[in-house]
């Protein structure tokens, strides 16, 4: 017996198995049910760390000259304007006050937490963050900014949920810290769509090849 894509999707949703997230997303892409992008935008040291072991990020800065800047520049303001939702882990929320995010008052914050937390203002805590992201991506709206941290990025990569990556390579070698990428069940192929340099920070933009 053959099933339609709608019936196959419904069956996968009913099973609700984590191993099926990638298949569910693939079907939703085919059926054009994905209407919003999940975009990872994060800074990383040259040796692959996003923070020191203690979670600090005071090292995130350029090299102090525009001598080697490219003519084309990454439009950070446009990125902020295009995102109306920010997804992050609870530790990231603790390490980075919302006030540090431009235009935070107009954005919705979805925070992954394994324990019960009290929502406040424009911040909402959820346990099933992958399911929440899938639901968000099926609604009309702007891009969804995947802020971090590393474990949440890992979960989203494994689920096949990230559409676009913006990686700012900071001209610093930390030597130790919290790595952005850990072991994955399978490799992810990328397509480099833009590379720019601002104050020694290489901004690399990739699409996920599906």
Automatic annotation (TrEMBL):
InterPro entries: DHFR-like_dom_sf (IPR024072), RibDG_C (IPR002734), Riboflavin_Biosynth_HTPR (IPR050765). It comes from the Bacteria. Pfam families: RibD_C. One of its GO terms (molecular function) is 5-amino-6-(5-phosphoribosylamino)uracil reductase activity. Residues 38-196 form the Bacterial bifunctional deaminase-reductase C-terminal domain. One of its GO terms (biological process) is riboflavin biosynthetic process. PANTHER family: 2,5-DIAMINO-6-RIBOSYLAMINO-4(3H)-PYRIMIDINONE 5'-PHOSPHATE REDUCTASE, DIHYDROFOLATE REDUCTASE FAMILY PROTEIN (AFU_ORTHOLOGUE AFUA_8G06820). This is Truncated dihydrofolate reductase. The lineage of its organism: Bacteria, Bacillati, Bacillota, Bacilli, Lactobacillales.
